[in-house]
Design a protein that fits this description.
Shape: elongated
Strand content: 25-35%
Structural class: alpha+beta
Helix content: 40-55%
Order of helices and strands: HEEEEEH
Number of strands: 5
Number of helices: 2
Distance between the termini: 16 Å
Radius of gyration: 21 Å
Length: 149
C-alpha cells in the first residue's frame, strides 16, 4: 500500500503538468490565430488597473497590469473584454487596435503582434513543463525498479 503513494503522486503531477502544457499551447495557438486571421477594429481602453501577488515573508511582489477594452465588431455588436499583461503605456481613454475572430469576439486581444516573443515564452514554458514531466517519469521508473528488487 505504501508503494502506491510512489506511483500515484508522480502520476497526478504528470497529469497536472500535461494539462498546463495543453493550456499553454492552446493559448499560444489562439493568440497567433487571432493575430494572423483576425479582423481589426478600433477599441478604447475603458479601465486600467493592477493586481499584486506575493510579498509575504521573503517572497517578492509580482504586479500584473489589466486592461478593460471595448470595441464594436464589423456587424455592429459592442464587445468588452479584459486582458492581462498589456503594455503599461496604455491608459484609460486611449484608443487601441483590437484584433478578434468573428466567431469569438469576446476573446479579442489588444496586444500588438509579437510572434517571436510569443514563441520564446511558449518555448520556455514547454521546456519547463517537459523537464518537470521527465523528472516525474524518471522518478516513477526508479521507484518501480526499487520496488521490484
Amino acid at each position: 500500500m505504501f508503494e502506491l503513494l510512489f506511483y500515484a503522486v508522480p502520476t497526478l503531477m504528470i497529469a497536472g503538468f500535461s494539462a498546463a502544457l495543453a493550456g499553454l499551447l492552446r493559448r499560444a495557438w489562439r493568440i497567433n490565430r487571432t493575430w494572423s486571421r483576425g479582423l481589426t477594429a478600433e477599441g478604447r481602453c475603458l479601465r486600467m488597473f493592477t493586481t499584486t501577488s506575493g510579498g509575504r515573508g521573503d517572497t517578492s511582489v509580482h504586479t500584473t497590469v489589466h486592461h478593460v477594452h471595448e470595441f464594436t465588431t464589423h456587424d455592429g455588436r459592442t464587445v468588452r473584454f479584459e486582458e492581462k499583461n498589456g503594455p503599461a503605456t496604455v491608459l484609460e481613454g486611449d484608443f487601441v487596435t483590437v484584433r478578434y475572430l468573428p466567431e469569438r469576439p469576446e476573446r479579442a486581444t489588444a496586444l500588438p503582434p509579437a510572434r517571436a516573443r510569443l514563441a520564446a515564452g511558449t518555448g520556455c514554458g514547454v521546456a519547463f513543463l517537459g523537464v518537470a514531466i521527465m523528472f516525474c517519469v524518471v522518478f516513477l521508473v526508479t521507484a518501480h525498479m526499487m520496488f521490484t528488487e
